[in-house]
Design brief:
The protein has 208 residues and is mostly helical. The chain contains 9 helices and 3 strands; from the N terminus they run ααββαβαααααα. Mean pLDDT is 78; it is low at 170-194.
């Protein structure tokens, strides 16, 4: 099926309707296409939607081996998943372990490029991995997370890297929001790093 043929049969519109989110189909080369969308269904779920459309409307969708699936992550989704990570001590340990691996890597001398620490890179990677396995990652896990997500987006100017720095800065004794990755999470104290970041985000105190 040609690019013109895909547009004429409205495959992108059909997938948008079935998936419940805007889907764009772009030409990736000769007889190859990319299916792109933001947040919403997982890649596996989108493959299922394409298969369903292909079955219901014969030859509407190109064969699977001609398709590349690209799900993009919005700043809203990153913030929502990062706030969820704050509640999970296992996730914090995973970030610490990932940072240690990066610090011990032979190329570790370049980890300060762009102002991001090993902890920052580990947190970015963890949030990305968590988002990939979750449908609608932009949605808050809990209603009480919504003001925290909005505050994080505002403080970080919708930049994943800036939001990451806000969440991790306080761990090294700086004036950031204080995720406490490098210093370790609090252990049952009255105000752990996770609690401090939640309190500051809610109150509007950026620590600056």
């Amino acid at each position: 099926m040609s690019d013109r043929g895909i547009r004429e049969v409205g495959l992108d519109k059909e997938l948008t309707r079935v998936a419940g989110t805007e889907v764009c189909i772009v030409v990736d080369g000769i007889a190859a296409w990319g299916i792109e969308w933001v947040d919403g269904p997982t890649v596996d779920r989108m493959r299922g939607h394409v298969a369903a459309v292909r079955t219901a409307r014969r030859r509407v969708a190109p064969p699977e081996h001609r398709l590349a699936y690209r799900r993009r992550q919005s700043p809203q989704a990153w913030a929502a998943r990062a706030i969820a990570v704050l509640r999970d001590a296992n996730s914090a340990r995973a970030v610490a372990a990932g940072a240690a691996l990066r610090r011990n890597h032979p190329a570790a001398q370049g980890w300060r490029a762009g102002g991001l620490t090993p902890e920052d890179h580990a947190l970015l990677d963890l949030v990305q991995r968590l988002s990939e396995g979750i449908a609608d990652p932009e949605r808050a896990d809990r209603p009480e997370d919504e003001p925290l997500i909005r505050r994080l987006l505002d403080e970080g100017n919708h930049s994943k890297e800036a939001m990451c720095r806000l969440l991790s800065d306080g761990s090294a004794g700086s004036d950031g929001l204080g995720f406490g990755i490098a210093g370790g999470l609090g252990s049952g104290t009255a105000e752990s790093p996770r609690e401090r970041v939640r309190l500051r985000l809610v109150s509007g105190d950026s620590g600056r």
